[in-house]
Every structure is written in structure tokens, then in C-alpha cells.
From TrEMBL:
Residues 276-296 are annotated as: Disordered. It comes from Lysinibacillus sphaericus CBAM5. The lineage of its organism: Bacteria, Bacillati, Bacillota, Bacilli, Bacillales. Residues 71-168, 191-273 form the Cytochrome c domain. This is C cytochrome. The keyword Ribonucleoprotein does not apply. Keywords: Heme, Iron, Metal-binding. It holds the Pfam family SoxA-TsdA_cyt-c. Signal peptide: none annotated. GO terms for molecular function: electron transfer activity; heme binding; metal ion binding. Residues 276-286 have a biased composition (Basic and acidic residues).
Length: 316
């Protein structure tokens, strides 16, 4: 399947679009494909490219041109939109990329992935090195999807890259993408977990269920438990979860929660049990590991009332 990736590059070059590194927001993130406020290093960019902004006008998925790339692009869309079904052997929970990146990354207001190819390769502090778009996708697979990596030459991975290239068409290096803000609360207030539980019962149960198990990957994803993201995902950080909640929730009323309410909800959600990431000790190998990762140890501290929230939030 290598010709597919070559086809992407060739198509992009023909239309005058260059996809190389800058810096991505971890609103992806996730993980998503959030994203995670890792330390990043932005490439040196031409002044004209860095200064310009672009209009949000991605090509329609319903109008993919005929040709050898069409099948790969459409397969990539399906893999992003219904990851837990289309790539079930690789996904360890009941989430899809759309769980965080609404509309398979097309939604301008919810962690849009349009233009994402213009950000890779990039340096990510959590990995301690330069990461390609393929490696970033696989990072989400093992963290946000609590699953396993695609093989580097697999049809699935190449299809996702083809799809991301398609929805990034026309986005130059360093362009200011107004829609690609970050889900990151810079100064998270000391949370009240009990208040977060009350808010959850008032506003979140209808979509995410009382036990956090969710009602569907793309309608109300699991927020904790076996079918949610593991605690190595970017969303397992207080600053990321609080920022995402405030920017995107509740559906239809995004931006209405105060910093305190978003922090309270984040603390309640992240204090619940979830899959554990086995490689915490390998993250941030060059230092700078944030304190606000809600690991099993911190979840236990919340439950027994010994957590020091000021210390947890000290790096945000």
C-alpha cells in the first residue's frame, strides 16, 4: 500500500500544498486525537506563511474526486468516524476518533482536524522526540482507544493518513487556523468533586449515563470504566479535561460553564476508575512531566480524601 502514501504526496504537491511540521493543538486529541499540551518546538516558518490565516473550507467528503485515492480517503473517513467498529481488532474500548473530534474532525467548533497534516512531523515532549502523523495516530490508538498500534504499512493507517491529507488540502505551513484552538485550561481552580458529581447528575447523564458508560461512541462516549480512554491519554489530565468540557459541553450550550464548574466536573470524571496506561514511567523522558495526570494513585487519593489539589494543579 505504499503507493497510496506516495499518491497523497504527489496530489498535494500538484496543487501546491506542502504538508510539513509546525505545532498541533492537542485538542485532539484526544488524545483528542486530543490532544495534550505537550512541550512542542515549532519549526522555523516563512514569515508570509506564518502570518496568514485561512478560511475554514474543507473539501466535502461527499465530493471526493474519482481516482486511485478515493477508496483510501473514504476508508479513512470511516475509520475516523467509527473507529471502534471499522478497526475493532485494534480498539480496546467503545470510542471513536469522532468521540472527541466531532464529525470525523469536520466540525469546526469541536476539536476540528481540518488542516492537521500541516502540523507534522513535530516534536512532542511526552514522546521525547519528533513524531510523524502516523506515530501520532498510533499514540491515540494505544492511549485514547486503549488498544494497539496499526502496522506502519497497514491499509488502515495509510487510509487515515489519506483522509487527513484530503481534509487538510489547501492549508499551508504555519497558517493561522482560527478553528484549531486548544482544549486547555491554563489556570484550573481547586475543584470540588462533590459539586462535580452533582453537576454531572444534572447535565451529563442523558448522554453519558449515570455510570459513565455512555450511550454511544459518537452520541455520548464512555467517560470512565473499561470502555473509556486510559489514564495515559491527554484527556486524563485535569487541564485538558476541564478545558474540553468548558469549550464543548454541554452540547448546544458550549462555553456556558464557569472555570470552577468545568474543573469540578473534570475532577469528578477523572476520579473514577478507568484503564491504566502501563508506560507512565516512559513518558516525558526528557523531563517536564506535568502533575495533573490523574493516574490510579491520584484517583485513590481523591477517594480517601488525601489528594493535594494545589500540588496536582501546580504546573497548569
Amino acid at each position: 500500500m505504499k503507493p497510496i502514501v506516495a499518491g497523497v504526496a504527489g496530489t498535494v504537491l500538484l496543487v501546491g500544498t506542502i504538508f510539513v511540521a509546525t505545532i498541533i493543538s492537542d485538542k485532539i486529541t484526544v488524545d483528542s486525537i486530543v490532544e495534550e499540551n505537550d512541550t512542542t518546538v515549532q519549526a522555523q516558518l516563512p514569515t508570509t506563511a506564518a502570518a496568514q490565516s485561512v478560511v475554514y473550507a474543507p473539501p466535502s467528503i461527499d465530493e471526493v474526486p474519482e481516482g486511485p485515492m478515493k477508496e483510501a480517503i473514504l476508508n479513512g473517513y470511516e475509520l475516523v468516524n467509527n473507529t471502534h467498529v471499522a478497526a475493532d481488532e485494534y480498539v480496546g474500548n467503545q470510542l471513536s476518533c469522532t468521540s472527541c473530534h466531532a464529525g470525523a474532525g469536520y466540525d469546526e467548533q469541536a476539536s476540528s482536524l481540518v488542516g492537521v497534516m500541516a502540523n507534522y512531523p513535530q516534536y512532542i515532549g511526552r514522546s521525547g522526540g519528533v513524531v510523524t502523523i502516523e506515530e501520532r495516530i498510533n499514540g491515540c490508538m494505544v492511549r485514547s482507544m486503549n488498544g494497539k498500534k496499526f502496522e506502519m504499512n497497514s491499509d488502515e493507517l495509510e487510509a487515515m493518513v489519506a483522509y487527513f491529507a484530503y481534509i487538510s488540502e489547501g492549508i499551508p505551513i504555519g497558517a493561522k487556523r482560527e478553528w484549531a484552538g486548544t482544549s486547555d485550561m491554563k489556570n484550573v481552580p481547586i475543584p470540588n468533586v462533590d459539586n462535580g458529581e452533582e453537576l454531572y447528575g444534572q447535565s451529563c447523564i442523558a448522554c453519558h449515563a449515570a455510570d459513565g458508560s455512555g450511550t454511544g461512541a459518537n452520541t455520548g462516549p464512555a467517560l470512565w470504566g473499561d470502555n473509556s480512554f486510559n489514564d495515559g491519554a491527554g484527556m486524563a489530565r485535569m487541564s485538558k479535561m476541564a478545558g474540553y468540557i468548558q469549550n464543548n459541553m454541554p452540547v448546544g450550550a458550549a462555553g456556558t460553564l464557569t472555570d470552577q464548574e468545568a474543573a469540578d466536573l473534570a475532577a469528578f470524571i477523572l476520579s473514577q476508575d478507568r484503564p491504566e496506561w502501563p508506560n507512565h514511567d516512559k513518558d516525558w523522558p526528557k523531563g517536564g512531566k506535568p502533575n495533573d495526570i490523574m493516574s490510579k494513585e491520584k484517583r485513590e487519593q481523591v477517594k480517601n480524601g488525601t489528594i493535594d489539589w494545589e500540588k496536582v494543579l501546580s504546573t497548569n
